[in-house]
Amino acid sequence: MNENSDAAFEAKIDYLQKWFEDNKKLPKKVDRLLLKRFYQCMYENMEDTQKRIEINYLIRNRHPHIFLIRDPNDASSHHTFEYADMVPLPGLTKEKYKITFFRLNDPDPKKMKFTEDTKAYIMVTDCRFCMPDLADDDCLSEGELQIFDMTGFNVQHVGRLSMASLHIYMKFLHQAFPVRIKHIHMINCPSYLDTLISVLRPFISKEVFKLIYFHTTRIDTLYEHVPRELLPDEYGGFAGKLSDLKAQFVQVMSDKRDYLIDPDYWKVETS
C-alpha cells in the first residue's frame, strides 16, 4: 500500500470500529487488528464484513460453553495442550498464507475431550488473530493453511467426537471465521480414512471439503504445497522443533489471558 491507500484503509477501519462499538448486537470492545482481518477476509466489502462480524458473535454467544466460558490457564486447557499440539508456525508462504499445525503427542483416545479441545483451539485462533502474522511488522496473512498429522488417530478417537460440537465448529469455520481457509492438509493418513471421511462428511460444506488434501503415502507430497523452511524439524523442515514452537505459543496465550477471558471483548450483553 502507498501512503494514500494506507490512510484510506485506516479510515475504513475507523468507520468499522465505530459501527462495532455502537452496535447493540456486539460486545463493548474489539481488537483493531481483528477488525482488519474481518475486512480483509471479506475482500474489503464493508457490508459483507459487518454481516460476518455479527454472525461471528451470534455463534459465540449462542454457545458460551465453547466460546465464552474459558481460560487458557485452567485445567481443561492444560489437559488439551498436554496431549495435543495446536501450533501456529512462524513465517508466511510466498502467497502470504499462515500455517497452523495439529497433531496428537499422546494417542490415548481417553485423553480426547472434543468439546474442550475445540474450545482450546478457538482460544489459539483468538490469540493469534490479535497479533501480526510476522513478528517484525504489522503484516497480515492472505489466508490460512492447516496441517493435521493423523499419526496415532484410530477409530476410538472417531467414537469420541461430539457431533454437536463438530457441527458448531464447522458452522463457525465456514460462516464466521475472520480469515480465509485456503487448504487443509491431512498427512500420515490412517488405513481407516474412508470411515473417518464418512463420519465427517455430513458436517463439512462442499466448499470446505474441496480444500482438503489427503497425503496417504509419504510426506513429500506436502512439500509441493508448503515450503520446507516453514515446517517443523520433525517433518523435514527448518522452522525448529515443534515442541519449542509450541512452548513459545503457550506462553503467548498465557500472556494474552486477560484479553481472552475479558467478557467486554466477547459477550453480547443484550438479549
From TrEMBL:
Cite the GO molecular-function annotations of the record. Answer: phosphatidylinositol bisphosphate binding
Question: Whose protein is this, by species?
Answer: Glossina pallidipes (Tsetse fly)
Name this protein carries in UniProt: CRAL-TRIO domain-containing protein
Q: Which CDD domains match?
A: SEC14 (cd00170)
- List the InterPro entries hit by this protein, alphabetically: CRAL-TRIO_dom, CRAL-TRIO_dom_sf
* Ranges where the CRAL-TRIO domain occurs: 74-243
Q: Which Pfam families match?
A: CRAL_TRIO
Q: Which SUPFAM superfamilies match?
A: CRAL/TRIO domain
| A GO term from the CC aspect | membrane
